[in-house]
Amino acid sequence: MALDPTQPYELHSQVALRPEPFGALAYHYGNRRLTFLKSVEMVDLVSQLDRHPSINAAIESIGIPVERRDAYLRSLVALEASEVIHAR
Amino acid sequence: MLVDQLKTGLDAPICLTWELTYACNLACVHCLSSSGRRDPNELSTAEAKAVIDELQAMQVFYINIGGGEPMVRPDFFELLEYAIAHQVGVKFSTNGTKLDAGKAVRLAAMDYLDVQISLDGATAEINDKVRGVGSYAASIAAMENLAAANFGPFKISVVITRENVTQLDAFQAIADTYGAELRLTRLRPSGRGADTWHELHPTNDQQRMLYNWLLDHPQTLTGDSFFHLSAFGEALPGLNLCGAGRVVCLIDPVGDVYACPFVLHDEFKAGSVRDSGGFTHIWRGSDLFTSLREPQSPGACGSCGSYDACQGGCMAAKFFTGLPLDGPDPECVFGNADEALALVGTGSAPSPGPGHSKPVSVKLSSRPTSLALHR
Predict the structure, then answer these.
(1) Contact B62 A32 (CB under 8 A)
(2) What's the ipTM?
């Protein structure tokens, strides 16, 4: 299923985030995959998804510049594929 | 770049190996911790649980447990269950000798647990030369037990040697039989391996064959072991950097912390979990780990066009073969270490010492002495 930025998403309940100087490590206890979140903004975005009615609203709320939003959406597609986030 | 950030260190390790005991019922000729006898000073159950508490607080998501043979510790399952209940997942390595049908059922019932069975030959002949008579049969029996208990995909861990490197397809076939994952790692001249490395490490032609095989089988697990082979051309999958003290470290059975599992030597000891400040302080503040996170000089490798690919290779391999740490790996694919290696005099490389090897028992006669006395 393709990522739909107009829909509500959340961090997977089996994923733990560990803050690191570059952003965070995301570990999925179910599939045991380790994923690197390579910016502090990405960490904020992923951990605040559940507070917003859509991905777009979360991006807006965090204040990610318009010109960088496509890059963030591409990263979210990868994060959905590795089950770090999912539709709620 | 992410790799550059990893080189400067993380707030907690990604890959922490914890050897629970030096006791082992086998005596593999390449054992990197020279295991055999239990150390009387090994961490108690309570001390081990305190370490797990600390790892949980640091958000170390999983640990690799080894030894020695970890399953010989009487509190093995207690510690396993404690770690998993505290969000510290476990992968443990075992020689399989203690993994009977009942234990397999118990393991299969646990979440966040991986099991890794050691096998250093796809045939008993090749395996038992390194791991001891009967060890091939024991490993296969453990695999059968895990499969019968529906454990799921466990791992088969192979240390690549000159003799088994020709068996890669056969190892894959064994893994496929059990729906297991194949893990291949590099032989290091560490522990008892210091005495056997010169005869057992793959030749350079074999290294190239292994490199091509790994490129053809990218799903193979390697623990980022073979990054020195990336100098052959295309980089192998993985981070391709020495993680010692940066993303990797080792806690030994008595609680001493080393930069990686392959450098059990005072020179690479950063402290003890028993020191005030514990493991957290060692990881974040020890002099050794701080220095390993500083930019490393390429030294003699600086003029080689492949330094970015291989990073000069493995620190432990250089150290225990007596080579300078800022020069080529003893298994440099271009042979750049051959000359220096030939000049290292016998006995002048740093010794890993006898470690916890069992005393060599000399069999004088196969005939029982008592019979001789009665005759």
Answers:
(1) yes
(2) 0.86
